[in-house]
Amino acid sequence: MQFKLTNEFIEELRGLVKQEDKTQAEKLIKELHPADLAEIFDSITTEEAKFLYLLLDGELAADVLIEMEEDVREHLLNVLSAEDIASHIRENIESDDAADMLMEMPEEKKEEILQKIGDIEQAGDIADLLKYDEDTAGGLMAKELVKVNENRDIAACFKDIRKQAEEVDEFYYVYVVDDDNILKGIVSLKKLILGRPNTKIKSITNTEVIAVRTDTRSDEVANIMEKYDLVSLPVIDQFGRLIGRITIDDVVDVIKEEAEKDYQMISGITEDVESSDNTFMHTRARLPWLLIGLVGGILGAQVIGFFEESLRIDPNIALFFPLIAAMGGNVGVQSSSIVVQGIAANIIDLQSTSKKLLKELLIAMLNGSILSSLIFVYNLFFSDSFVLTTTVSVALFAVIMFASVFGTFVPLVLHKFKIDPALATGPFITTINDIMGIFIYLGIGRIFYSLLLI
Amino acid sequence: MQFKLTNEFIEELRGLVKQEDKTQAEKLIKELHPADLAEIFDSITTEEAKFLYLLLDGELAADVLIEMEEDVREHLLNVLSAEDIASHIRENIESDDAADMLMEMPEEKKEEILQKIGDIEQAGDIADLLKYDEDTAGGLMAKELVKVNENRDIAACFKDIRKQAEEVDEFYYVYVVDDDNILKGIVSLKKLILGRPNTKIKSITNTEVIAVRTDTRSDEVANIMEKYDLVSLPVIDQFGRLIGRITIDDVVDVIKEEAEKDYQMISGITEDVESSDNTFMHTRARLPWLLIGLVGGILGAQVIGFFEESLRIDPNIALFFPLIAAMGGNVGVQSSSIVVQGIAANIIDLQSTSKKLLKELLIAMLNGSILSSLIFVYNLFFSDSFVLTTTVSVALFAVIMFASVFGTFVPLVLHKFKIDPALATGPFITTINDIMGIFIYLGIGRIFYSLLLI
Predict the structure, then answer these.
(1) In the CATH scheme, what is the code of domain A147-248?
(2) Residue B41 contacts A where some CB pair is shorter than 8 Å
(3) Which residue of B226, B273, B334, B357 to mutate against A (max A Cβ within 10 Å)?
(4) C-alpha distances in angstroms, A80 versus A34, A308, A346?
(5) B353 φ/ψ angles, rounded to the nearest 5 degrees
(6) Which superfamily is assigned to A279-453 in CATH?
(7) Phi, psi angles (nearest 5°) of residue B172
(8) Checking CA distances to A62, which of B50, B164, B326, B349 falls within 20 to 30 Å?
């Protein structure tokens, strides 16, 4: 029942575009689902996409636009005329999707498109939405919704719904409002279908409705919809008036984006890039953390230079630099990622910081003891120097303890100061733990060598 | 409109539980949303949770069970009687949630509960679902759904719906089947409400319905629902018969779990742990990658030992071990994470491997040139040895090139062999690049020192 996009299919299509064979190309794509078409458009050039796009009929074209990747769509929209875009928005696009599309455009073209839409109400809705911050409930919501006055009965409600439903894609709940448009609750379609025609809406309204305000942050919106298993969420203004609704499919995107952001942060990538982005964008996204790594490496070199004396006494100390640095980095990343995930899942706030640190210390002591013992046994067999053997083991233990406390502490502190704790994962923690690890190792080495050799 | 769970609230509640003050405790919790109650239950002891749980009335109790964290719920279910559990399942729990709950239980208790449910149809549905693999569409779906024969009209359909809707929580679509229960399409509630009583269902059925088979993997189910923006997805057997449906809220959990799994993998954590899990579980989840790091460190020591000669000629070579190791690790993680994300988003398959590697090489060349030049300038000022200065810069460039190709290549290869590519992120890539980085550095050093000093 599903279409599986293959390289062969794309190549065939590109061939047809090259030959400008409109009839064959149209035949190939007109039966496809908009989401599949969008996937195709995402992986061909803008010119090819434009050629295919103009073959699609209005409603399908509009749906494809909605489904496309933002940056690829931006390119396509740039080469389409304001008239074409306006006519597709008029056709079928809900206000939130239209606002998403227009947001990326230059001011003049945005204005031109809004003018050309023609339908004042629709254009006005879109212009309203464009005012909200992208990362808030206002930026996520659509204006189209189905609502009914609490004083009507089911029969009258069905009439109201018929009038409103034309402009809404799908709806799962009917919102109940009073005469001032204040949100009073929701009625599920199930209850409407199961009820009798003369039942008052008020009597079947679920008044324990969860709503958000337009300025609620989008990650909070996602948390609420996920926690309460909602498929749609009403948005109200500061007076409690119903002004929009958010559907779960928009929030799924928010959830994915949040997860991707944290993932890129821990892997040392500063901007939202995808494998399909160009070389320059990738370089720009990766260079900043590498520069920090470079500075860290230079500081590391200075720490080692500071302990030159120790290295002259036993050059074999240098053998374990990579081990110490790597273990500090790994332990730090483990600890910090657990904290970041806990914060994202809203668990952390309910535990006290000291309890958290104590537990991390326990884990570090366990892991540290095991790993230190192992390297101790290894060195007993393979190293000639008992001082070095002891130094490496004790230092490894100390580094693991330090790295784990540091990796726990930093994201917690950032979170307290309302800075994204994910900043403290990946290269940041690794770099600092590298340097501190080497410092601890050489510091302990100096003490042990002076104690045990004299 | 929402309840914000605080530490104070939990402490107050625990106080009441300690005093066994049922009246006050009940007053405090009976107005809460099940999701909030579940959050409270997740952060108190099992005994406290049991005390509170037994104060809840049937339907609320059932909902709380569904919302709880799996491992915490397991503890609570263990201390509840089979009779209690069965009565709550009978009350209100849909088949998929009931199956999720029973799955974790010992065989005998599972049997006992199924027997005590009483309603043969409901117990049978649950027993059916227990047969499916947890990670497939069969494991995600619920048996309760609303369906109608394609030959009926809207008026008759409403009658059918009234009969079926009692046992379903919410529904957004009515599934259309033929006389053999073969899935023919869907009708949205909107269409039913907007249509006329004598309209044939067949004529308003959307036949381009997307369905999955019971054995479809759950990550594929998530991808499909996300891509096509579905709130519910029908599940069919090998003959095309409709046997269940999956709703978006279950899939949101799958999406979150997948993202968390990748995140934990890149941060070097092997099992699914949360900050609330105990010390032992954390140690067990973190130790494996640390052991690999330890072995890597020992190999690193052997590589350095192998180049002892070079270190005797210029001990300052050791100064840049941390720099070289860190940069190799960072670059490797960046490259591999981009590939892993691309694979997860289904983008990678559409690009050829050679194109991918070429692009990574370009990015690495850009970043490598910039970073090598910087460290070259630094060493020109701060190092006495021109040979060392050249060695460090050339080696850094080479290490960045190697790490980036390796970080791209390994996850692609794993993916080709159907192994989770996320395995090749984090500590794995870091460890190998650490060792290879040191090897490349010292290898280049040996060549340069012999060339330039003689």
Answers:
(1) 3.10.580.10
(2) no
(3) B334
(4) 18, 66, 44
(5) -60, -40
(6) SLC41 divalent cation transporters, integral membrane domain (1.10.357.20)
(7) -120, -20
(8) B349
Contact between residue A331 and residue B290 where contact means Cβ atoms under 8 Å apart: yes
Give me the sign of the Cα torsion angle B132, B133, B137, B141. positive
> Which A residues 147-186 touch B at CB under 8 Å?
158, 161-162, 165, 168, 170-172
pLDDT tens per residue, range A354-384: 777 888 889 999 999 999 999 999 999 988 8
Query: So what's the pLDDT on residue B262?
Result: 86
Contact assessment for residue A119 and residue A163, using Cβ atoms and an 8 Å cutoff: no
Domain boundaries, chain B: 7-136, 147-247, 279-453
Neighbours of B168 (CB within 10 A): 15
CATH number of B147-247: 3.10.580.10
- d(Cα A298, Cα A302) in Å, to the nearest integer? 6
Name the CATH architecture for the domain at B7-136. Answer: Alpha Horseshoe (1.25)
pTM: 0.81
Q: What share of chain B is helix, strand, coil (3-state, %, to 5)?
A: 70, 10, 25
Euclidean distance between CA atoms B324 and B321, whole angstroms: 5
Interatomic CA distance for residues B70 and B276, integer angstroms: 13
For residue B418, count other CB atoms closer than 10 A to its CB: 7
A447 C-beta neighbours (distance < 10 Å), count: 13
By DSSP bridging, strand A242-247 and strand A232-236 are antiparallel
Burial category of A380 from C-beta neighbours within 10 Å (exposed 0-12, middle 13-18, buried 19 and up) = exposed
Is B333 in contact with A293 (CB distance < 8 Å)?
no
Kindly give, in sequence order, each residue whose CB lies less than 8 Å from that of residue B24, ignoring residues fewer than 6 positions away. B16
Digit-coded pLDDT (tens) for B170-208 = 777 889 999 999 999 998 877 887 788 889 999 999 888
Cβ–Cβ of B227/A35 closer than 8 Å? yes
Q: Give CA–CA dist A338/B260, Å, rounded.
A: 10
User: Is A334 in the B-facing interface, judged by CB distances under 8 Å?
Assistant: yes
Nearest to B274 by CA among A343, A331, A352: A343
**CA B185, CA B164: separation in Å to the nearest integer?**
18
Q: How far is CA A232 from CA A262, A359, B52, B248, in A?
A: 26, 39, 31, 11
The Cβ-side half-sphere exposure at B364, using a 13 Å CA radius, reads: 28
Strand segments (E) across A134-194: 147-149, 173-177, 183-188
Reading the block at residue B232, the tokens are 């519910």
